[in-house]
Amino acid sequence: MVDMDVRAEYFNAREALTMxxxxxxxxxxxxxxxxxxxxxxxxxxxxxxxxxxxxEITDFTREFCRCLDLLSDNYSQMDTVEEAIYxxxxxxxxxxxxxxxxCECVLRLYDRVPYFKSxxxxxLKGWNRQLDFLRRNIERADRGDLDSIExxxxxxxSDPVEWTARWEEVIDDAEREAYxxxxxxxxxxxxxxxxWSALGAVLSEKYGIEWRSPSVMNRGVMFD
Length: 224
What we know:
- The protein is an all-alpha fold.
- It is built from ten helices and no strands.
- Helix 1 (about 1-20) packs antiparallel against helix 2 (about 25-50) and helix 3 runs parallel beside helix 5 (about 95-110).
- The protein is globular, with a radius of gyration of 19 Å.
């Protein structure tokens, strides 16, 4: 199966990085780091396409950032790293504090790596705008002012509870439990409604979080 191959390749890359005798800062060590970076993207892409293991995003994001921080300033294939960064950014939809740490990691690259320094002010402004948006909403959530939280997009709304620290503390476990409940439910059109129902039940009954799903927040919108 393709997903097992992708996952196996990722863990092989991690093992090679752990066991290598190459020294940090060399092109050979950077190549091993980038294999892990690209491996995280492939596994996450497979998870989302198969609608499985979404809770793994937290551990994969932390691994991704750890590898970015270890990359030398003059690695020769930074365009590959840049593409991976933008793809990873799309995989972190509802973990705002995790996304803050990811944006901060990216900004560290812009601060030290010539390739990213040369990208221009607009690229840097884009990352800083995203980080400012995240921090504003997290601050509002932390003081309990959920009504003033800004929505992430112009068209679809999400429940402001997703910005709370409590949500982020439990969402990985809650997703794992919801998927376990739906283990024998076929994926495909309409699966998201079953998933949201199961996730909402877990959040309410086990963690005391009343969550409104995308279908509740966006009446009249059809999801697949």
